[in-house]
């Protein structure tokens, strides 16, 4: 039986491991941290439960596909429920908007902002659906190693139909009269850690994922997902070694033959699947001769500044997911990607899973996961100095938006800075979605799932194709596992 080492127990690594073990390979995962899940992590304290990474679950069918491949039922592992109110949006002038998976309700909300935009929304969503369907046949179904195939006329015509020289922001402006709706749809660029003013209009497919396919929640918390994948992997005999950082991928004659762990142990394998951040893997785990300068130029995605707040108060004005918009969206993204500074008046995301799941907080309390997009790490921001005052400004802003007495009601608190994302998960400069999609050709520039230079080396996770976010990293695991299963074959890569 051929054996495989997976570096990292993030969702991409777990998904690849499950598929490969089900296909008859002998799989071992080596994970640096003491728990599985990577950036999908959790904190439990004083009766509160917090997901510290992902909080919004989309593309449920991708998770189902993994369980189906393993001849298991998703329902036997996870209780995944649809959210009726997808997200509640707040603006500083007091207006509020509930995005709902019931499109008539969403249209009623749109009519309150700008009646002409109801029809525009229908057209926008139809376009988003077309884009999603094309991406589903091309980018989301094929590894970038298949690029030569994707450039054949059969696919190329479709790819050109969804490619755009326009930015997402320009696209949204061309559809919606209401500046608020433009801002709302611009926000979808942040789902892969990018700026709407730089990411191509192709990403206008993302709203279809949410409005068309639904927003979901895993009862008990999103951390149930990696736990379910861990269970699935173990059922197929995957060995998971925790607290086991890898120092080096061993390469002989341009072929990987295994890894060396940080305590010096050499573990041989027929294949290596790196779920460690792909850019960091090239930087630190692979001989320098294989390092491609282009990787250094790839802009990391945004990072995140997170507050976990256990609050002894109920906030009836909150939904499960909430957005408190900034008044100047362009300034926010200039700060993030041009100045590499925390935005002064940022948009704030608050997940209160306690609104729909009583297991997440003590009675009459809320577990607030507060996330503000933050720049990837650089010398321009020292979070050790700035975290406290930034935290204060966020609490103050949330109070001004109606979360009364928030400061006085906090009984548990933890701050997570971009530096922690960088150090704990060894991500490229603390990026939370791998590389950004700022740039027209960004989708073609991700690390392919199979190395073109080093035989038997594969890459999965947010910095690889097809991108960051839970469902996409599961797809990267699928693509790598399929290539290994079918015998890697020829293809494009670097
Ligand atoms: C704050 C935040 C909010 C988010 N919100 C959402 C959301 O709402 N919805 C959504 O879908 N996605 C969201 N995401 C993104 C999503 O969580 C990630 O894209 C996804 O989980 C990344 O999976 P991955 O496979 O890339 O692995 P990672 O999570 O990056 O895990 C990689 C693993 O490799 C390990 N590792 C690294 N180097 C080594 C080494 N040398 N040796 C051994 N192990 C190593 C790390 O410790 C880690 O466990 C969010 C992320 C964050 C941080």
TrEMBL record:
One of its GO terms (biological process) is carotenoid biosynthetic process. Its EC number is 1.3.-.-. InterPro entries: Amino_oxidase, Carotenoid/retinoid_OxRdtase, FAD/NAD-bd_sf. Pathway: Carotenoid biosynthesis. It is an enzyme of class 1 (oxidoreductase). One of its GO terms (molecular function) is oxidoreductase activity. The keyword rRNA-binding does not apply. It comes from the Bacteria. Residues 11-483 form the Amine oxidase domain. Pfam families: Amino_oxidase. Keywords: Carotenoid biosynthesis, Oxidoreductase. Belongs to the carotenoid/retinoid oxidoreductase family. This is Phytoene desaturase, neurosporene or lycopene producing / 4,4'-diapolycopene oxidase.
């Amino acid at each position: 039986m051929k054996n495989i080492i997976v570096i990292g127990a993030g969702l991409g690594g777990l998904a690849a491991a499950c598929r490969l073990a089900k296909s008859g390979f002998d799989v071992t995962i080596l994970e640096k941290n003491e728990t599985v899940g990577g950036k999908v992590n959790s904190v439990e304290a004083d009766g509160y439960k917090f997901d510290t990474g992902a909080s919004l679950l989309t593309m449920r069918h991708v998770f189902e596909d993994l369980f189906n491949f393993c001849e298991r039922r998703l329902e036997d592992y996870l209780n995944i429920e649809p959210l009726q109110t997808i997200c509640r949006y707040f603006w500083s002038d007091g207006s509020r908007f509930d995005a709902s998976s019931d499109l008539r309700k969403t249209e009623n909300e749109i009519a309150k902002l700008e009646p002409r935009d109801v029809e525009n929304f229908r057209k926008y969503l139809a376009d988003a659906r077309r884009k999603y369907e094309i991406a589903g046949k091309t980018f989301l179904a094929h590894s970038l190693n298949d690029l030569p195939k994707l450039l054949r006329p059969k696919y190329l015509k479709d790819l050109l139909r969804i490619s755009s020289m326009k930015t997402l922001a320009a696209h949204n402006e061309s559809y919606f009269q209401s500046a608020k709706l433009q801002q709302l749809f611009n926000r979808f660029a942040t789902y892969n850690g990018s700026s709407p003013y730089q990411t191509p209009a192709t990403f206008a497919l993302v709203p279809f994922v949410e409005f068309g396919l639904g927003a979901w929640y895993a009862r008990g918390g999103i951390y149930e997902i990696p736990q379910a994948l861990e269970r699935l992997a173990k059922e197929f005999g995957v060995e998971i070694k925790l607290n086991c950082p890898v120092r080096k991928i061993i390469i002989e004659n341009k072929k990987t033959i295994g890894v060396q762990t940080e305590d010096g142990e050499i573990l041989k394998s027929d294949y290596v699947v790196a779920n460690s951040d792909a850019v960091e893997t090239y930087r630190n785990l692979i001989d320098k001769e294989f390092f491609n300068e282009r990787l250094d130029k790839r802009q990391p995605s945004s990072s995140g500044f997170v507050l976990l707040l256990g609050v002894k108060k109920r906030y009836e004005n909150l939904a499960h997911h909430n957005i408190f918009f900034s008044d100047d969206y362009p300034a926010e993204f200039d700060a993030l990607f041009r100045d590499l500074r925390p935005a002064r008046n940022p948009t704030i995301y608050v997940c209160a899973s306690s609104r729909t799941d009583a297991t997440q907080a003590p009675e009459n309390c809320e577990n607030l996961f507060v996330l503000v997009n933050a720049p990837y790490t650089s010398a321009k921001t020292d979070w050790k100095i700035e975290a406290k005052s930034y935290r204060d400004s966020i609490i103050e802003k949330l109070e001004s938006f109606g979360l009364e007495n928030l400061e006085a009601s906090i009984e548990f608190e933890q701050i997570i800075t971009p530096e922690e994302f960088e150090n704990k998960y060894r991500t490229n400069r603390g990026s939370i979605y791998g590389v950004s999609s700022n740039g027209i050709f960004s989708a073609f520039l991700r690390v392919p799932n199979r190395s073109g230079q080093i035989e038997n080396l594969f890459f999965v996770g947010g910095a690889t194709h097809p991108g960051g976010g839970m469902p996409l990293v599961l797809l990267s695991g699928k693509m790598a596992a399929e290539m290994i299963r079918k015998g890697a074959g020829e293809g494009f890569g670097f």
